[in-house]
Amino acid sequence: TLDSHEIYLWSLQTGQLVDVFSGHSGPITSLAFEPTRGRLLASGSWDRSVRIWDIYAGPDAKAYGDPFTHETDVLSLSFRPDGVELTVATLAGHLVTWSVEGGMILSTIDGRLDIGTKALAGSAFHTICHSADGSCLLAAGSFSAVALYHLPTRTLLKQYPIPLHSHSHSHSHSHSQANKDNINVSGKGLLKPKIDSLAPVAR
Tens of pLDDT along 51-89? Predict the structure, then answer.
């Protein structure tokens, strides 16, 4: 393959390449900065792993602990706003929450049990985002609904149905439906990662 499965870190101020992170053996599907300091960068891949990188460490200390391994491909990831936990969406339809420092699984949610049917056995969440207080997670993908979970109790709080005949309109539908219930998915209600003057690019 011509794909190097590397992450290129660029300076937005100078336009210069700052660093390259190597370690994944499959295409990289998702990237997220740790939101409190922006020092750690998480990357998810089809190689079924999530890797944490220290972007300010020396060349021999870039990897921050061991990879977080999963049974299936990693599709999306999101840091809790305080940076203590990282939730990962996998091809199996699972939402797996990890301790960033401890490298241990704290909880697992099976989205297929909550939303999926036999007809949608291959469904998975492709994008996830924490609420501003870190207690909830909004997850969307190839399921028949966008899901709002309460993470501490692993409870499905709300489903926002998506017309199965029109997945092309699922993005706008989920936004309008969520806004009806005062769930702000455009910025105020959910925390966006702070990347300052650096931008990672996966290749």
Answer: 999 998 877 668 888 999 999 999 999 999 999 999 999
Query: Which residues are CB-neighbours of 101 under 8 A, at least 6 positions away?
Result: 84
More confident residue, 137 or 142: 137
How would you class 156 by CB atoms within 10 Å of its CB: exposed for 0-12, middle for 13-18, buried for 19 or more? middle
Angle 176-158-68 from CA coordinates, rounded to 5°: 100
Collect contacts of 42-45 with beta carbons under 8 A, ≥24 apart: 42/77, 42/79, 42/86, 43/7, 43/200, 43/202, 44/74, 44/75, 44/76, 44/77, 44/88, 45/5, 45/73, 45/74
Alpha-carbon span 149 to 146, nearest angstrom: 10
Burial of 172 (0-12, 13-18, 19+ CB in 10 A): exposed
pLDDT of residue 18 exceeding 60: yes
Question: Quick one: how far is CA 13 from the chain centroid?
Answer: 26
What is the model's pTM?
0.78
Under 8 Å CB-to-CB from 1, ≥6 apart: which residues?
none
